[in-house]
Amino acid sequence: EDIASDRAALLALRSAVGGRSLLWNLTQTNPCSWSGVFCNGNRVTTLRFPGMDLSGTLPLGLGNLTKLEILSLRFNALNGTIPSDFANLVNLRHLYLHGNFFSGEIPDFVFNLKNLVRLNLGSNNFSGEISPKFNNLTRLSTLLLGNNHFTGSIPELNVPPLQQFNVSNNLLNGSIPERFSRLDKSAFSGNSLCGKPLQPCPGTEGGKKKLSGSAIAGIVIGSLFGVLLVLLILFLMCRKKRGIIDSSGAAPAKQVEAVAPGEKSGNDSENNGSDGNSAVAAAKVDGKNGKSLVFYGNVNKPFDLEDLLRASAEVLGKGTFGTTYKATIDMGMSVVVKRLRDVTAPENEFKEKIEQVGKMVHENVVPLRGHYISWDEKLLVYDYMPMGSLSALLHANNGAGRSPLNWERRTGIALGAARGTAYLHSHGPASSHGNIKSSNILLTESYEARVSDFGLPYLALPTCTPNQISGYSAPEAPSYSSLDEEGVDLPRWVQSAVQKEQNNEIFDVELLRYQNVKEEMLKLLQLALECTAEYPEKRPSMDVVASKIQEICNSSIEKEGVSQQYYSADLNALQA
Ligand SMILES: Nc1ncnc2c1ncn2[C@@H]1O[C@H](COP(=O)(O)OP(=O)(O)OP(=O)(O)O)[C@@H](O)[C@H]1O
């Protein structure tokens, strides 16, 4: 097997499914320059033909591409089964067949492709049961099978790396394995499944089952806990009285007296999801003193603390510094409340710093609207950003839908984030953000970027050990940690992939649809590398970064315009 047999396999593919759309220069003996074909050394390693109008049945022959690592045929009109010689593609790591009309069962040889990391078969007509043999694929981290006709139940899958899993809109029944109970409901919807995260399975709750030993132990412990709780409440009430007496003449700083049981220990994992009574409402107010929220700027106070405490609250997530809630106030207004945990900075110092954060006003920074501070409770109020974060949009469940982020939007977001950060660098109380990451870049309805969470690392620093901050900050910063959840040093990894000329590993596959802006993509990548240089003097200032991104935006907009013209010329020619 060599490049000639790879070429023959590609020609077989072209004549079977892509005669009209794979417009390659067939006089070339080396296929590596054909569009969508990528080689390493002298073998084909990647094929990317997303949305290329391929139709028909895949031919035998692709199995000769024995060095193939990535195969993307998503969003075409391919039908039939997966050809049997795919069994030879033992180096395959990513297989994307979603958005086609493939049918039949998942063939057994798929479970021998031991290097598979991502498998997306979503939105096809696959049928049969989901085999427990997926357990053979010990590297699998993404398994997307939604929108097919799979039947039976979900097997126990104990593949440690498996994180992304979706079987929505199939014909599955039975209970969801415990291992998947923490996934989002949407991963299972559109089936007859039960168990967490969906509704409980019949007979597992409130049933007439005999009480097991552990249930009895649970009841005994629960009762003891109840007694302790009553004692705790009595204790808190006594302390409250003392507090009022003690505070005569002292700063009235004890309005938020207590929080819901369990919350004080920082253990609010049960609050995941929406809960009308949880969260913000968990903070009790001593109404007599009426100490209220402090708002910044010359705004009329939009609501008071009592409104906030009455608001229905939904947990948006748990971050480095506490839990973030969306609170919907009675009058229909939504705000975001960040309930900080473990702040050890003295109250006055905290107040001073947070007020400086409140003075930061820029169109690319999420404004801090107000705060509530007492000795044991620190709430920060932000505008609610309905489009959520860049991270959520980039990693949205990629079942059948395409990412709404085209190249133009992405560069626009990068520009906004750079401008926001440049502003913070020139005006901030501390000179850097300290926790830049995509979940801290929030978006307006028109996809304008706003940087959020500014200043928190400096307020919470005494309790933050470096590896608790998961965003990016410069290597010389005290809180520096560039390791992601999987322990990968992202800037290093990108640098090494660029050195090895493996840019395709870095670019989101979604971007391959915008080949005409590849030059801009490379420029942006180069800029990102400069920004993450180890030595500060080698890094461009954020003002320079913003203006370079502006240039990149301008040139890709020009190109978009040109390619649109070509595109309509093509269309006209076709119609003629
Ligand atoms: N103002 C806001 N509007 C809408 N969503 C928000 C807002 N602020 C935060 N979020 C979202 O709420 C979730 C939790 O945010 P939070 O800031 O607590 O954690 P994080 O950003 O994941 O981590 P970190 O605390 O390290 O910044 C994230 O998905 C974030 O994108």
UniProtKB/TrEMBL annotation:
One GO location term (cellular component): membrane
Cell location: Membrane
Protein kinase domain mapped to chain residues: 310-576
Biased composition (Low complexity): 262-278
UniProt key word Signal: yes
Keyword set, alphabetical order: ATP-binding, Leucine-rich repeat, Membrane, Nucleotide-binding, Phosphoprotein, Repeat, Signal, Transmembrane, Transmembrane helix
Amino-acid positions noted as binding ATP in the UniProt annotation, renumbered to this chain: K338
GO terms of molecular function: ATP binding; protein kinase activity
InterPro entries tied to this protein: At_inactive_RLKs, Kinase-like_dom_sf, Leu-rich_rpt, LRR_dom_sf, LRR_N_plant-typ, Prot_kinase_dom, Protein_kinase_ATP_BS, Ser-Thr/Tyr_kinase_cat_dom
Protein name: Protein kinase domain-containing protein
Organism whose genome encodes this protein: Lupinus albus
Phylogenetic classification of the source organism: Eukaryota, Viridiplantae, Streptophyta, Embryophyta, Tracheophyta
